[in-house]
Amino acid sequence: MADKEKADIEEIMSTDIAKALIAEAEPRNTPSVIAAVGNNRGRTLRLYATTSWDGSFFTPPPQSFNAGETARFSHNGSRGALIYGQEQGSPNAAGYLLAWSMGRNFGRRVYVNCGPLSEIHRNGWESAALTSLNSSGVSSSATDDQTASSIRATNADATGSFPLGAVSAVLA
Hints:
Blueprint: H1 3-13, H2 16-25, E1 32-39, E2 45-59, E3 64-65, E4 70-85, E5 94-101, E6 109-116, H3 117-120, H4 125-134, E7 139-144, E8 149-157, E9 164-171
Parallel strand pairs: 1-9
Antiparallel strand pairs: 1-4, 2-3, 2-4, 4-5, 5-6, 7-8, 8-9
C-alpha cells in the first residue's frame, strides 16, 4: 500500500463518522464502508442521486460540497453508489459516479466514472453502475475530455476485525 493511501485511510478512520460506524457495525460483523471524497473541481458539487443495492447509508453524503472540501459519509451493508455533479445547465457540467462494495458475498471493490452530467445521471444508471462495479477491482479511475473532468478512487481494507472498507476518492 502506498504512503498516500495509508495516510488517506488513517485520516478517514480518525473521523467521528468512522468511530460511530465502527461502534455500530463491528459488534454485528456488518460489512461497511467509510468514504472521503475530495472536491478538486474548483466548483461546488451537488448530490444528484444515491442507491443502495445492499444495506443503507449510516451517515448520508452531504447534499453539496464546495471546491477544496471533502465530503464524508458511511454505509452499512455495504454496496451502493452516488452521483455528484455541477449544477445542471452549467457549460460542460461534469458528473461523477462513485460505486463501492465491501462484504463477504461481493468483495471489496470500487468503480468510478465521469463525464457530462446528463450521461452519468441517465435512466438506468444504477444497473450500469452495478454491472461495472461487479467486474472492477480495489481501485478505479476515469477521465473525460469533453468536461475536462477526472475521478480516481481506492477501496482499502481498513481493519482486520470485520469487513470495513475505507473509500478515498478525488474529483477534478
